[in-house]
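FAQ: What does the model actually see?

It sees only this:
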Amino acid sequence: MIVEIKFQNSLFSILFSDNFFPPELLWVAPELLSLNSLPRTRLPSTQKGDVYSFAIILEEIVVRGGPYESIKAYVNVHQILDRVAAHEFPAFRPFVAPDTTVCPPDLMDLMEKCWSDNPDERPTFANIRSEIAMMMKQEALKIFHFVSLN
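And it is asked to produce this:
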């Protein structure tokens, strides 16, 4: 695709290849991706979109890498964005290994709720905060129980 930009009576042509999609779009919720007609177009922000982005950040923390870290070797950013925006069933999302030593099931459930394809099914940040507080309390109790046994 060629995009022409007029700047102070000069015309510049910029070539965007099909593989040029800014990696920042990997954090964008599916319902907002369709609003992005050109790379680097400013997208609207929504609370539910921010919840989706938060889930992608959680995935990064858990896998200790970038967004979609475990599949980046097999697909490029453009392919990831196409699949997310297509609203596939089941939804195309980052892969997080079901290893309870790396990601507790409660945290995995929270991530999955937050990156739901339907924005109305995503929790609010108040609910997220409550769930994380509960998880932290449960982990603290496990540690306390372990220490008291030894």
